[in-house]
Structures
1.
Amino acid sequence: MNSAIEISGLRKEYKGFTLRDVSFTLPQGFIMGLIGPNGAGKTTIIKLILNLIRRNAGDIKVFGLDAIKHEAEIKARIGFVHETPRFIEDATLKDIKLAIAPFYEKWDEKMFRSLISEFALPLEKKFKKLSHGMKMKLQIALALSHDADLLLMDEPTSGLDPVFRRELLEQLSGLMQNEQKAVLFSTHITSDLERTADYITFINDGEIVFSLPKDVIKEKWGIVKGAKELLLKKSRGMFKGVRETDFGFEALTDDIPSARREFDSGVVIERASIEDVMIFMDKGGDHA
């Protein structure tokens, strides 16, 4: 299986924050959701892949190529969508397209026109006159119009209405019919990941907590609910995070069969959603 992204030992130091020993792999033909609290390092990782900032240590390979040595070749194959769209404010959408298209040998004008029509974007309108949602749609149209092999998307569904969000996610899933393509996107909308992601990578406070196939999480991770007296020191250690209330406890396990054996019929075990996993594994929260 070929890799779209291979990251190992990645480190980036800022005053007050350090991205530490980040390692994960995104195979071609799959979608990876990058999740974590605000300030966890998600955008920093995307910027490092694009060489918008320089790393202090570690290796990044995109399509098997070193991200620094082969930067121009790699970027020609990447589509990028940022949570805060930035183009010249007084430029029309037509002007923006004319400036960007020449950078891509595979630019598909027919595809661009089709997306512009589908998204109801007025080419003669100035960028500054667009709503946030329309600006996001413009970025998405540009990213999808040059047959990119890798889409890097930082909060791509931010500001989009539910109907368009669903359409976008279906479009991303459709891209995966081509096994040479891949998508990495960060998001706070975990329902988007439930619908489309193949892999989930969770980062917290600059460190990767886990990077797993979504199916593994759906099959093996669960929320255990029971009376407080069942939460002994031994059993507490088997959980990824625990929340105690006046009525009992809730805890996150990554091994539902082991939890069933440990507690027998004394607890209720429900499948964990990705949102559950985020909440219970946030090291800065009350659950961890």
Note: Confidence is low (pLDDT under 50) at residues 284-288.
2.
Amino acid sequence: MAKPKPIVALVGRPNVGKSTLFNRLAGARLAVVDERPGTTRDRLHADTDWAGVSFTVVDTGGIEVLPERRLEAVEQRLRGRRVHAPVEPLAENSALFVREIREQAEIAIAEADVIVMLTDAQTGLTAADEEVAAILRRTHKPVIVAVNKADNAALREAATEFYALGLGEVYPISALHGTGTGDLLDAVVTALPPAPPEEEDEESVKIAIVGRPNVGKSSLLNRLLGEERAIVSPIPGTTRDAIDTRLEWEGIPITLIDTAGIRRRGRIGRGVEKYSVLRALRAIRRADVALLLVDATEGVTAQDTHIAGMILDEAVSVVVLVNKWDAIEKDTYTMVEYGKEVRAALHFMDYVPVLFISALTGQRVNQVIPTALQVQEQRLVRIPTAELNRIVRAAVEAHRPPSKAGKRLKIYYAVQPAVDPPTFIFYVNDPDLVHFSYERYLENRIRDHYEFLGTPLRLVFRGKKRGR
């Protein structure tokens, strides 16, 4: 189970360069960069490190300002301080997303350990910056002001006007060129809280309930507990915080983690990706097993597959729960056919168990925890080295490894050095010769002998000369 990392949220009004800074800190172009305000509609996250300290950096959609009459009042205050800045109207191409963007940023602020407020040196201090600062003043989290686009000495000097926000030290930077980002990161790392102590309940099996909004996560939690421990509502996003609930199941200690819904993909511009809610990511990282809820009345959606991919990225085991099964008209073959559709949509997770349940009526809910515990047991299975190598040799004999430029892959031997999740190291002549399809073939041959139900396998290929 991955240890939670501190979170640094990048916030600010639209089009100040949050996505550009995110890409620089993450070391890759993970965020869509567009001159149009409001391009980033949802949070993006990536793990990074600085000075030996690891953390998760989060890009947020711009916090849009309030209606123009409020802006005028703020502008009056600014002019009273002799700060003459233009009033920015609501961005025309992002007006439809104002509420969602603001909510996403505020959730990120609530979840963050350190907040970096980005502003624009070229535009100068604006009423919109004042509005963003007003939101940030409501938090007790450390806030660092980064004045972006300070691409020359004059702009860096002008950045001092942002001290008027009253949020503390100001760091002029250029996210595009990297200027000043080192000083900014030094400040971020200094402001991060000390690492939390290890949890005392590491013996409990941690099961996260995840899924899109309104698929029945809180209803399932209540049904599992047999009591109204969480508020149940048909309004998407009702559950705002991850809720940990302890229970015992036939003597086994369990921690159930209920999470806020992961939002649907919006009808947004080309190339813009919708990412998950942060607290769901944190819950998945803490979990041994994730219960991925799918709405039977809607089928597996693109956002469902995105959540499944996030679970896979974290190497967490999973049980797929097709909820609201009571609302489906059925015949003898409905469950079989629906199961095929689910597995086709989640083809990269063909090892997962699928249960058809109704949190409303309780149908098959009694199978959820036993199945999750069975999956957790599979995370801890270790194959003896001799048995593993017999499986690998038989696989190689049945299907010769691929070759490239006349050079064929040779597998000398394999070991399983770790469980939770099961990890296998293959010593080969050249790791570059391993094609994805052959890696998948080897995984399937291992699963032919050891099911590893609901559990991802990690296959690592290392170069090794024979006889060494």
Note: The mean pLDDT is 80.
3.
Amino acid sequence: MPGKPGSALASMGIYVFETRRLFEVLREDAADPESSHDFGKDIIPRLVAGGKAVAHHFAKSCVRSTAETAAYWRDVGTVDAYFAANIDLTDVVPDLDLHDKDWPIWTFSEMTAPAKFVHDEDGRRGQAISSLVSGGCIVSGSTLRRTLLFTGVHVHSYAAVDHAVILPYVQIGRGARLSRVVVDRGVTIPAGLVVGEDPELDAQRFRRTSNGICLITGKMIARLEN
């Protein structure tokens, strides 16, 4: 930015369109053999050149709690970025305050039973440390650290989950050890599976990023079983 060498303006990817005009531009672009059909490279410039387009400065209207020092925004377009943005929420005082009643997050909320923690014996204690656990989850004699469990996840006994983002309705089998992972929706993690301790083995079985985060999908698990 002119006069502010330490700052730059960037598109946040949030757009509001008049539907009819957007459809017109999309059809025009589809019929243009010279277009690369890229939203940012072709569609937005066409709208700017051929109609009314305005920008809004995010920081000027972003509501934030007293604990948040700056307007919060994160890019989650890669596995690493998605992982980091979610794990940030497990901080004692996260940059994004989900408990801020002045800025509620209005989204679909599934009606579920409360989260449940069971078993209380040495080596088999249901517990979560610096973690977020959604409704419908059962943490059964297992330990979570810096982990997010989305709706309906069941973590079976003797499992250990550390720095993990677990999407809805995942089943984590007995004795599994997962570290620095993103597990896709509905995946069943086999009993005893270990991820996050052997980089070479992880890269052979799953999608492992340069930062060491493993993405685990149902197809990847199916290949292990064949």
Note: The helical segments are 19-30, 39-50, 79-88, 199-205, 218-225.
4.
Amino acid sequence: MELPTQCPVCGSPVARAEGEAVARCTGGLVCAAQRRESLRHFASRRAMDIDGLGDRLIEQLVRLGRVRTPADLYTLTSEELAGLDRMGERSAANLVAALEGSRRTTLQRFLFALGIPDVGEATAQALAEHFGSLESLMAAGEEEIRAVRDVGPVIAAHVHAFFAEPRNREVIEALRRSGVAWPDAARAARPGSDALRGATVVITGTLAGMTRDEARDAARAAGATVTDSVSKKTTLLVVGADAGSKLRKAQELGVRIVDEAQFQELLSGGSGPRL
């Protein structure tokens, strides 16, 4: 059976990665067939973390033709949102605030949010660390992408095909024009950035200077493995305000416990004791 060369929905090229039997549409950010799911993924907590953009609201915005790509989300106003079903002024204002906050992100989160096939959080992190900037990744060939840690031929083909699609590039450029930005990974690296190499880190409580997701990203960038629960394998617990059962368990197990200031000192390679 001959494989299609174009997606019948959006017209984007269809590519089949090495070793795969199924050909996939490369128009992930523009394909109408993938639109709802790509928007849900883009807004999810581990991606751009747009609180308040739920399934029903996405369905409305897509059905009305108001949002076709993730870049359209950043053109929404509180006035028009307040006029939608089950949306009041407060909910609309909160969503606009969440959209504004999501403009400040990391390269790893942005890559994950794009919904490139088979690119999960770990792969997005590896790509960000290897290339340092989005421009370098977008300009890379398949062989260069395959050189990234834990990236094989299938994922490399998906990444290369995604960025080779001109309309995906157009949406990415529109997102950047709307103010979505991040520090390049190479410039964000700090002296002593290997201070947590080999550590298993858990973060609990409310931090003052960063969100827990930002703290997890910083720990991973410093070489740590980040988990959600305290166990005998945990080597460091970072605690913020209102830390609960995880703190008690860490104390019982004799896990090293640091506050946010001590954690920041470790990340910056300060004079504090290293792991």
Note: The beta strands are 14-15, 24-25, 200-204, 225-226, 236-239, 256-259.
